[in-house]
Each structure stands twice: as structure tokens, then as C-alpha cells.
Amino acid sequence: MFSIISKIIGFINQSIAVIGITGGVAIAFTNVVARYVFDASLVWATELTIFLFLWSAFFAAAYCFKKDAHIAVTIVLDVVPSHIAKPMLLISHTVTIIFLIAVAYFGYEYLLLVNEIDERSIDLWDMPMWIVYLVIPVAFSFAAYRVGEKIVQIIKTPHNEVVAESEAEQVLAGMGIGSKDNSNEHVKELNDMVKEVEKKTGGML
Fold this sequence. Notes:
Blueprint: H1 2-37, H2 45-67, H3 75-79, H4 82-116, H5 130-133, H6 135-156, H7 167-174, H8 185-200
Helix pairs in contact: 1-2, 2-6, 4-6, 7-8
């Protein structure tokens, strides 16, 4: 059941992110052409573009939790023993999920307030604004679910395997070079160089 839920959430996140960014760019481009070529302007285009980009960004951010694509400073985890790194990761993810749940909850509370006062869009055909603000509780709930999955995964993973490859190792792997393969002198030098850069940038390569 959890696997099905995960796939549904992933599909929703990806679909809205893609539709939002694609639709926003298309509408913005159309409005620019209409304004400078035909000397006309779509009154609703600017507001709708902002809302589409907003939805795309929030759902893309929620999807990034699944892929571990958010910026993370891992230099501490790379130097501490694995039996310490595991509880550190658990604490970090616990704080993250508490924050996400809190934002989702208060986003829902704000949604109720907006609906109660009947706030509406000026340019988008008198559309109720609660539809726009719905992105906050939904996207943050999806993100919290993803972090919950990570917490379960960390708990189940042995401490000596819980820390993923460093960014330096990922860069080398992307170049088709195994970071642990030092049989070639050039590979060893490249490996050392990338890791040194990572160290100096605080793990944010």
C-alpha cells in the first residue's frame, strides 16, 4: 500500500511541476508576443503565470525530497564515525519533518481563513484564492511523507551503510570514474582534487 501511495505522490509531484513550469513559460511567452507584436496584453496572464510557477516550484521541491536533491552540507557526516552519523541523520530528518508538518498545518489553517473571508483573484475571473493557497498544505504534506520514508529507510539501514556517497564521489561517478579506484595515477589525482574542493566549500560542491 505504501508503495502505491509513494508512486501516486511521485506522479502528482512530477506532473504538477512539469505542467506548471511549461504552462507558465507558454503563457508568459504568449503575453510578450501579444504585447510587443500585436500591441495587446492578456490581463490575466501575469497572475496566472505567477501561480503556475508557484505550484511548479512547491511540488518540484516536494519531489526533490525523494531524490535527495536539496542542498545539504555533508562535510560533518563525512568525517564522523558511521555510528554517530546515523543518529545525526535521524535528528536532522526529524527536525525537517516537524517543520514540514507545521507549515502544512498552518497552511491549512490559512486556507480556511481565506475561504471564510471569500478572498478572490482580481484578474483570474474572480477565482477563489483558496485554490491557489491549496498548494501549501498539499505540497508540504507530500514533502513530509517523503521525509518520513527517509526516516524509515535510515532506521532500517545499518549504520555503516547509512551515509551515501559524498558529492565528490558522485561527481567522479558521473564522469565514469570510480572514486575508490586509484589504480590509475591520474584518477587518484582527480579524486584528491575534487575531494579537496569539496572540503573547502563545506561539502557544497
